[in-house]
Design brief:
Layout: E1 2-4, E2 15-17, H1 28-41, H2 47-62, H3 67-83, H4 93-104, H5 116-126
Antiparallel strand pairs: 1-2
Length: about 140
């Protein structure tokens, strides 16, 4: 049985299968709501970048990506946008390069470096359509 959950801040509707065997084992709806709330409430992310992030994720859903993949992108953008010193659509190639250097220097809350996999995931998102050179000013 499928239940349509309420729409989140970015207008996503997640259909979750429920039953005795298959359920929302990844708690996608809750994770989606939590990351949306963190982005919405962050004072370090500009309103324009919030808008661009949500538009990008809407685009991903239109392309058929799962809600879990959207959660992946939103979590990475939450970190990336807090490192950004400009709106994504106003960044120059040099701004993006500085952002990449910041990603490579990410630290855990305890001050330890994040894993290489985490850095690679963030760089993948940073190289997404939102931050490609074609979308930035030279």
């Amino acid at each position: 049985m499928e239940n349509e959950r309420r729409s989140t801040e970015i207008g996503l509707k997640t259909e979750v299968q429920t039953g005795s065997v298959i359920g929302d084992i990844y708690n996608v709806q809750n994770r989606l709501e939590n990351v949306n709330k963190r982005i919405k409430l962050s004072e370090r992310i500009t309103p324009r970048n919030k808008e661009l992030i949500w538009k990008f994720c809407d685009h991903c859903r239109l392309q058929g990506l799962s809600a879990l993949r959207v959660v992946f992108y939103l979590n990475r953008f939450w970190n990336i946008a807090r490192l950004a010193t400009k709106n994504f659509d106003e960044m120059t190639k040099e701004d993006v390069q500085r952002l990449v250097m910041g990603i490579r220097d990410l630290r855990k809350r305890n001050g330890e470096p994040v894993s290489e996999r985490t850095i690679a995931d963030h760089l993948l998102v940073a190289q997404s359509r939102l931050l490609t050179p074609e979308r930035t000013h030279d």
